[in-house]
Amino acid sequence: MENSVLNEEFLATLPASLRERLIQMFSESTPVQIEKIKQHLKENDPKLVIETAHSLKGSGLAIGALQFSDILGKIQQEAKRGLNSALMGNLLQEAEIVFALTVEHLRQYQK
Q1: How confident is the model at residue 1 (pLDDT cuts 50, 70, 90)?
Q2: Considering just the CA atoms, what is the radius of gyration of the chain in Å?
Q3: Which of 34, 30, 27 is nearest to 49 (CA)?
Q4: Where are the domains of the chain?
Q5: In angstroms, what CA-CA distances link 93 with 34, 39, 62, 86?
Q6: What is the pLDDT of residue 46?
Q7: H helix runs in the chain, sequence order
Q8: Which of the listed residues 70, 79, 92, 100 has the most CB atoms within 10 Å of its CB?
Q9: Which residues have C-beta within 8 Å of that of residue 7, sequence separation ≥ 6?
Q10: Per-residue pLDDT averaged across 76-94, rounded?
Q11: For residues 60 and 26, is the Cβ–Cβ distance under 8 A?
């Protein structure tokens, strides 16, 4: 089952000030966290890949970023199986694309 980019019903229930803070935090911290996952992959550290992906998945869910969170869940699961660099590279690329799309959709909820 393919998820939509955002859970818009969830976003609409958040108070505007909280929604603004969550969007800002998600937009600013996610690229840094994705880079950390890349670094953990280079260092061949599956434990840190799993931890960072889990944290990012939670951040995505907190803002209603369904598709993004789904991809991070896949990264988590694949890291538990081993660090297949080609597969992880593809998943990270997909995460970056979906992150950009998510931020674009989130902008409609900012003041």
Answers
A1: very low
A2: 14
A3: 34
A4: 17-109
A5: 10, 14, 22, 11
A6: 95
A7: 8-13, 16-42, 46-63, 66-81, 85-106
A8: 79
A9: 64, 66
A10: 92
A11: yes
- Does 84 score more than 70 pLDDT? yes
Q: Does residue 111 carry a pLDDT above 80? A: no
- pLDDT band for 48, please (50, 70, 90 cuts): very high
Contact 31, 90 (CB under 8 A): no
Specify the CATH number of the domain 17-109: 1.20.120
Judge whether residue 2 has pLDDT over 80.
no
φ/ψ (deg, to 5) at 45: -120, 85
48 to 17, 22, 34, 53, 55: CA distances (angstroms): 32, 24, 12, 8, 10
Q: 44: phi > 0 → left, psi -120 to 50 → alpha, else beta; which? A: left
End-to-end CA gap in the chain:
32
Q: Do 67 and 98 form a contact (C-beta atoms < 8 A)?
A: yes
In the numeric block, which tokens belong to residue 66?
């369904």
